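Lecture notes, continued. The same structure-token format from the folding unit now serves as the input rather than the output. Read the line below as a description of shape only.
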């Protein structure tokens, strides 16, 4: 079971003033399905980018925000995604999908 909510669009920067590749805000679209997963093994901005890039390749994904510090990945998509699709993308990036957060 995943957490799904509608989230308004917020603006964010690629890199924050702390050198992180995110600023704590998700770049999401209105009306999208937001799902949060836990991913094991991310330790830095490079890890976040690798996971985000692979998940972004899934059809219907409009936004991905990976946070190494929490191990959470927030995905916004037009429709709910299958966990198998997310797992395959995370595996391809070299990390382990634990499951829904």
């Amino acid at each position: 079971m995943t957490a799904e909510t509608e989230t308004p669009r917020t603006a964010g920067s690629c890199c924050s003033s702390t050198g992180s590749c995110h600023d704590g805000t998700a770049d999401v679209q209105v009306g999208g399905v937001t799902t949060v997963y836990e991913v094991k093994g991310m330790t830095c901005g490079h890890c976040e980018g690798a996971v985000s890039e692979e998940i972004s390749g899934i059809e219907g994904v409009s936004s991905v925000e990976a946070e190494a510090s929490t191990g959470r990945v927030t995905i916004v998509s037009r429709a709910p995604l299958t966990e198998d699709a997310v797992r395959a993308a995370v595996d391809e990036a070299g990390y382990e999908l634990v499951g829904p957060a």
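Point for the exam: The longest strand covers residues 33-40.
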